[in-house]
Amino acid sequence: MFELRGVEMLHGETRVLAGVDLVTRRGRTTALIGPSGSGKSTILRLMLGLWGPDRGRVLFDGAPVERSGPAALALRRRVGYVIQEGGLFPHLTARDNVTLVARWRGDDDDAIERRLLELAALARLPVELLGRFPAELSGGQRQRVGLMRALMLDPDALLLDEPLGALDPLIRAELQLDLRDIFRSLAKTVVLVTHDLAEAAYFAEHIVLLRGGAIVQQGALADFIARPRSDFVARFVSAQRTVALSPPRAPEAP
Amino acid sequence: MTRARTRARAALLALLLIFLFVQVAAAAPAASADGERDAAHVVRVGSKKFTESVVLGELLVGLARAHDTPAAHQRELGGTRILWNALRADELDIYPEYTGTLARELLARPELQDPRELARALEPLGLRLSAPLGFNNTYALGLTRARARALDVRTISDLRDHAELRLGLTEEFYERKDGWPVVRAAYGLAFASDRLRTLDHDLAYAGLLAGELDVIDFYSTDPQIAAHGLTLLEDDRGVFPRYDAVLLYRADLERRAPAFTRALTSLEGQLDDGTMAALNGRVQRAREPEAAVAASFLDERLGLRVELRAPTVASRLRRRAVEHLTLVGVSLLAAVLVAIPLGVVAARRRRVGQVVLALVGVVQTIPSLALLVVLIPPLGIGAAPAIVALFLYSLLPIVRSTHAGLTTIDPRLREAAAALGLPARARLRLVELPMAAPSVLSGVKTSAVINVGTATLGALVGAGGFGQPILAGIRLADTSLILQGAIPAAALALLVQGLFELLERALVPRGLRLRSR
């Protein structure tokens, strides 16, 4: 599936990625985790070909990921991408957001409608919300629509950049549950970016911890706890566990 | 989506239909004029934007009609240069001019004093000059008859002994090389600075009559001279150049309208200073239409009967509205078609964008009159130069708003669109332009409203519209005439504003008008 070999990325003088080697496994969920600025989202953009590496190679199913041209567009249609708050276009209804590319491609109307209803059921979005504009949906609903849009063309892989980041705790827990079910039932290759270790462990078999643009450790959660490769890993794990174990705070009044 | 798109298409179609309608309506009268031209050449008469010139223009039209020659009058064009260029570009056949202006301003050969010498200089340009009409509309200095008698001054030289006099001069006379500087030098006049002020011509008259000023400058055919019994001081040292009125016409007019050109000689010497001043006075003070004044002159002096064709108020208003809407509509449509793509390019490529924005910004700073004058040689007079000027002025708001609308799209949404695997063109059409629509449309609206106002300047180059009565009103200091142009123009601006608000409702996707929860 996705393969990064010695990837380096510079942003002006700053090194965003420094020698990243990473292979995601087919049909499995990989979580990229780390403090902000560690290069997690950059890796997703490289996988989509939105950005190109300064050094090294990015491959998808063995072929280099292109940044432009028909091959690049074709690849992006084979990879679903979900960002925080869904990234919905405000001028289109939920329905039109989800079906935009399929309609542009000239897919059969009935097939589009069937797929739409299928996805609504999968993402547990009430059908009557499909006619609403993003501004008329709640944050969780927007995220569900964003997921439907990413899945519309039945992609081989799904990339999610902090999909639960902007949601309040209750909705977050609910969506978390639904997302894991979806990932499992679809058996797609999923790469998920989060800064929350518990969330990463919840979704992913394979966890990749990044710091300053480099991978410090990867593997299963158990490895991180039992055999931290460095002091940073140990501190990162214990800090996150403290938070995860502390009693939930009362929701703040709006 | 499909419903919104259908609605947008319908709105665009409606807009196009309006433009088409205006086009057809505007083309109809032009077509009939062309038909007339096939039978006999229509003599195209021009005039400058002051009363005397307009009266002479009407006189020429009357003369032509009296000799069975159809004629059309492009009245009150914006300046000497505009008329001169139009004549040379075969947009006009004839217009009244002054020898001094021809020698000094147009040919830049001030030594050509004699009309025959001037005619020889014009020959190579394919232009002819009539014999002088009789009056010399030059500068003069004067004062009230009572004051002149009390002080016993008759000539400009006499002013030297009266350093106590208070002078009120027009700015133009004070600055012009052939005005006050030569008078002061030639006559050795020395007035203290608190004795001399520059002010508007009409105000100078008022000051003179109120006794606040003693001496002011005139045009020697001003109707006020006779009306108020003013005394002109003799230019005893011959300092003022001669501004003999002549008719300037294209040499080929003799072939195109032989009867009319032959008849021009009948005007020679018929208009002395007093006669011209009286005709000017009947228009300016008695508010008689120029055509009527010209017709009565032709009748009394030359025994020529001219039928007066006065259009009704309604037909005049309709014609002006059509002219005005054509100027605004055509220029705006062209600007939309050019400026939106320019804005897209500017938003896509930063370097190119900066150049494009700077360029359309520079266009905006060109004074409208200068732009119109520059456009006449290639485009002639009439609607064409006005439309091109309006088109150029319309670009900036639309380019800017398109650029702003596209560059302020949330970069995350732009990325989301790219990640969907849509090609750039489809992204622009399906995502970016719809999201920029409110901004783009507000730019078009700004351009349209400004256009309605700026289009009044079209009258300066013979494009007609609501600017025509405004120009005439300013010339005649007639407020009601000014309002006849200003009120419909203002109403039209409001109408356009309202139309765009409706259009906004149809074109801006509903999702963009909602506020997020």
Report what the structure shows.
The complex is a heterodimer of chains A (254) and B (517). Helix content of chain A is 41%, strand content 24%. Chain A is an alpha/beta fold and 254 residues long. In chain A, α3 (94-105) runs parallel beside α5 and α4 packs across α5. In chain B, α1 (2-39) packs across α15, α2 (51-66) crosses α14 (290-302) and α21 (467-475) runs antiparallel to α22 (479-507). In chain B, the strands form three sheets. Chain B has a five-stranded mixed beta sheet with strand order 7-6-8-5-9. In chain B, strands 3-10-4 form a three-stranded antiparallel beta sheet. A two-stranded parallel ribbon of chain B has the order 1-2. Chain B folds into three domains: 3-23 and 313-515, MetI-like (MetI-like fold, Orthogonal Bundle), CATH 1.10.3720; 40-136 and 243-302, Periplasmic binding protein-like II (D-Maltodextrin-Binding Protein, domain 2, 3-Layer(aba) Sandwich); 139-232, 3-Layer(aba) Sandwich (D-Maltodextrin-Binding Protein, domain 2). Chain B has 23 helices and ten strands. Chain A binds chain B through residues 45, 48, 50, 73-77, 79, 81, 83-84, 87-93, 95-96, 100-101, 103-104, 133-138, 149, and chain B through 1, 412-413, 415-423, 426, 430-431, 434-435, 437, 509-512, 514-517.
Strand order of the largest sheet of chain B: 7-6-8-5-9
Give the biggest beta sheet of chain B. Answer: 5 strands, mixed
Q: What Rg of chain A is obtained from the alpha carbons, in whole angstroms?
A: 19 Å
Intertermini distance of chain B: 22 Å
Any idea of the CATH class of chain A? Alpha Beta
> What's the CATH C level of the largest domain in chain B?
Mainly Alpha
Strand order of the largest sheet of chain A: 6-7-8-3-9-10
SSE order of chain A, one letter for each helix or strand: EEEHEEHEHHHEHEHEEHH
Under CATH, the topology of chain A can be stated as Rossmann fold
Task: Evaluate the radius of gyration of chain B.
Answer: 28 Å
**How far is it from the N-terminal to the C-terminal residue of chain A, by CA?**
44 Å
Q: How would you sum up the global shape of chain A?
A: globular
- What is the tally of helical segments of chain B? 23
Low-confidence blocks of residues of chain A: 245-254
Beta-strand residue percentage of chain B: 5-15%
Q: Give me the secondary-structure category of chain B.
A: alpha/beta
